Amino acid sequence: MAEATLKKPEFSTPQSCFTKTYVDQKFLETSILRRYDLFREDPEYSEKIRLIRDEHKEYLHKSARGLSEGYQELDASQPWFCYWILNSLDLLGVLDDTSSFVYKENLFEKTIYTIARCQGELGGFGGGPLQDSHLAPTYAAVNALAIVQKYHKGALDIIDSKKMFSFLLSLKQPDGSFAMHIGGERDLRGLYCALSVAYLLNIQTEELIKDSELFVKSCQTYEGGLASVPFAEAHGGYTFCGVAALGLLGKMEVIDVDSLFQWLVNRQMKFSGGFQGRTNKLVDGCYSWWQGGAFPLVVDYIQKRDGISLQNNNNGDWAFHQFALQQFILSCCQQPDGGLRDKPEKNRDLYHTSYCLSGLSRSQYNTFSKTTTVLGIKENLLKEIDHIHCIPVDKVEVAKLHFQNSKLEENKN
């Protein structure tokens, strides 16, 4: 386990500028500095930075039992709530804990029941019962069921793979992209969600993936990052979607990887250690995953292409400062009573809880060197997240094996 060495940051904005951007940035950096100073002047600070597991567990358990009225407007996100809660609990190691089995069994059954009611007659999943099938909740539903499958056999059996394939194919566009739903918008989210589902369910075909890499290529901007659609602004979320899609396709070479790599590196902010989503924007904890999660595929491709190593023996494998990112998440994104958030002064939510933990996990595991890079106490280490599907690696293996066996049985019959 590598040791942490962090320096006191300097304000990143010039003191003579008084634009709204400057004011917001200075306010955020002042808030962050107050938190960092609590530790930096203490020689034993690294041992005091900790992941408040119990508080996060309680927040997630409470959310699993029932959401507040404020979530009613997000009725079309029911599979997402199942996924975010389960993914967070799994990364924290709660689902592997043999205690509280009755509670977890109830959680699994409740998840399966909720998601089954969202499955459309023509395949795919909607955001809620009787809602039109849509690629975003379909992706969330499949990920949630993949997590449950290890603990509750048969969870993945509720997915009608044949109808799912027909649903995905019905959304395929001539330019290689996918519409989010019948008659819906097309962007890199749809492409990633469709391919992630297809590869987990073992239903990818040449017809389904045809020209998808060309659509990803068309979304790369002059900055190097990827936009939602051609000629839009480079964005961390869409960049991850495009990079992960190319990773599944094995077609990373179609884009300018060096330009992309430079753009990714420049999104980690020197002052806070967190990632911003776009140029000249504030840092946000969720980009710990959307930006940080893209590094393994990009770094792996460059190392194999050029025959070089981008590893930093003092800070892991990923060519970003892993300790600094962990410090930002642990010091600034944890709400004291549980749950994680965008940044200081913001409120916790299930979305940021899942993606902050996912980014934290990604920054802790070094795939190439087979080591861990953990800031603070050793108990801060989470389970390892898969760098494409954004669920723990053991759940990806469970899902792929399930559908490989299903296809073998189908061929026998």
Would you write up a description of this structure?
The mean pLDDT is 92. It is globular and about 65 Å long. It has a two-stranded antiparallel sheet. Helix 3 runs parallel beside helix 5 (135-149). It has 413 residues and is an all-alpha fold. It has helices at residues 20-40, 53-65, 78-91, 101-116, 135-149, 161-171, 188-200, 206-209, 212-218, 236-249, 257-265, 287-290, 295-306, 322-332, 350-364, 393-412; strands spanning 365-366, 371-372. The protein has three domains: 75-159, no CATH class; 161-254, no CATH class; 267-382, no CATH class. One of its GO terms (cellular component) is protein farnesyltransferase complex. Belongs to the protein prenyltransferase subunit beta family. Keywords: Metal-binding, Prenyltransferase, Repeat, Transferase, Zinc.
Please estimate the helix content: 40-55%
How many H/I helices? 16
Gap between N and C termini? 50 Å
Cα-atom Rg, whole angstroms?
Answer: 21 Å
Number of DSSP strand runs? 2
% residues in beta strands: under 5%
Instruction: Quickly count the domains.
Output: 3
Biggest beta-sheet profile: 2 strands, antiparallel
Structural class computed from helices and strand pairing? mainly alpha
What would the average pLDDT be, to the nearest integer? 92
Apparent shape: globular
Function: Catalyzes the transfer of a farnesyl moiety from farnesyl diphosphate to a cysteine at the fourth position from the C-terminus of several proteins. The beta subunit is responsible for peptide-binding.
EC number: 2.5.1.58
Pfam family, one: Prenyltrans
GO biological process, one term: prenylation
